């Protein structure tokens, strides 16, 4: 087999220079349009026109000829980059698509889509019958030509619409999701119509078998994607996040999935963008693919690949071809019919769907954008011998013109759409969940040695992770110096959920183990007993310490966890001494992820029974810091799941008697601020479904007041927020927090999220 010659030096240099110019001009013109209040997509589309034969080709024909008037094979190199940008843009669009919202509005989206297909197709078909024969590549195939014009008029440009919605910051609004839903239905029908027309152009007859195959392929692909595919994508993303534990690996995984799905849909004649969009939707439902990762992918896409895609689409446009009087007049007619058909269809359908006039205008303006989708349709028509070059230029011009008009219409009409109370609550809830500490937990590590504190920590984690997509991993570290636990080297892991990593348990169980599975069960069983009702992936594993126990736990935490939960009773009795053991003290100091330490006053012989006791009352001291707010969210989440009462307390630090002046200081302002603070936390707690009480008190020793209050009210748990910081070679939580941990009559959970 002959070795394929690599890309030549000149060809490679040319494509690099082309990409440099396209990206630079696209971003520059896009930013210029953004400065004057227009979406950047408008400038990015025009950038291609400026670099094409219409402007650059006239101003500097020699330079243009050497750069862009190249062979088809050379231009195809740019097309590959363009398609990659299109696929990435559809992934981002899918990530922002709310399937539940679309399903809830499915009837409305279907009505809008039918209106956006039937009327434009009918008017486009009629136009095809009356256009001069000079625009038909094969004059004897006017039927095919008319069907093709109807299809071209029906299509919408989801990438352009999505980009505009993102830039206008309305993609999460009901109107944005409705446009995306209707547009996707529109385009799916459009691709089916295109397959029919292309088959008719090739054979001269309607290929019913091809049409049926295409329709069947759509239904099968979507059906498999949202059943088996949904579970597979969720399991794969979690597995990559757990085993590889890097953002790079997760983004690579999404790209591989999108390309693979795109290859499947392209193979069955549905276009690669459908597969990429569906993968984006499926990944968007997996919490392990966090908001930060989505933002990273969005920045890369909108900053590099989307501008290249839009610029290359504009590069195909030759305005000079429209200067001919006949071509120009025909272009105006086609443009008018395209806009009328789309707006008339959408406005009529919006009334049937019960939408307002401004909602109809917004949806019509958005779906009127044809963009690169129509350019692709025009390319198919040109290649199939349906269109002349003049008609191709007209359709491309209409695609760009409608894409330029759509953002202006949407920017004008969207502010006139009033946001309903339900929509406002949904958006506020989504914004809260995006910033929520508990909701953004994807992976928790609970190291255990089987003691009372770690058992009670598991008791607190069970309501915290209940009904949430959180991977809880319980690890027993086998210290080689502990003869009771064995002294063999190596690594032993035992996975409890085959859904988490199928087949891995069998492979790892063959390795030499420091403890047997039966011995491991002795440590895990009390904790697993608290977690058996969860229908979420979890695992338990034993790891032999390499170095110290702290070294081993820290090494595991470096694999990427969102929270480390440590069960540990206070060992230091006096201020200045380390509050916890050397191992826990070091983990607190050195790990960079949030950590929560759970300490109990239980006697060892009663620890198992006490760990199963109900939680009826939680005491939540607060001073208004970020860690306090995150600790409050943990307390409220546990309380809502356990039907417990949360008492929020703020203790005003009253000066000691020896520090006072002759008269008692006026602390009314401090009390007022404290009342505002606890009221704010109470509103937050009620929003999370917890029952709350508030209390503001004065004390010379707030820490003693908190301990006394816990004793008086018979609190079952105290939840504190604290910034843990190293002082004097030990973890320092603050004197008052440490006092509460040492003296509290009930378990204490201390959360440091910073």
Q: Top keywords for this entry?
A:
elongated; single chain; two-stranded antiparallel ribbon; Rossmann fold; Na+/H+ antiporter like fold; eleven-stranded mixed β-sheet; 10% strand; 754 residues; 29 helices; alpha/beta
Structure description:
- Helix 26 links the parallel strand 7 and strand 8 (645-653).
- Mean pLDDT is 79; it is low at 482-515 and 728-732.
- The strands form two sheets. An eleven-stranded mixed sheet has the order 3-4-2-1-5-6-13-10-7-8-9, sandwiched between helices. A two-stranded antiparallel sheet has the order 11-12.
- The protein folds into three domains: 9-433, Na+/H+ antiporter like fold; 436-593, 3-Layer(aba) Sandwich (Rossmann fold), CATH 3.40.50.620; 614-657 and 665-754, 3-Layer(aba) Sandwich (Rossmann fold).
- The chain is of the alpha/beta class and 754 residues long.
- Helix 5 packs antiparallel against helix 14, helix 9 packs antiparallel against helix 10 (174-203) and helix 11 (208-243) packs parallel to helix 13 (272-284).
- 60% of the residues lie in helices and 10% in strands.
- It has 29 helices and 13 strands.
Mean pLDDT: 79
* CATH second-level architecture of the largest domain: Up-down Bundle
What is the count of DSSP helices, taking H or I runs of 4+ residues? 29
- Terminus-to-terminus distance: 60 Å
Identify low-pLDDT runs: 482-515, 728-732
Give helix % range: 55-70%
Class of the largest domain, according to the CATH hierarchy? Mainly Alpha
Structural class: alpha/beta
Find the count of extended strands (DSSP E, 2+ residues): 13
Gross morphology = elongated
What is the radius of gyration? 32 Å
Oligomer: single chain
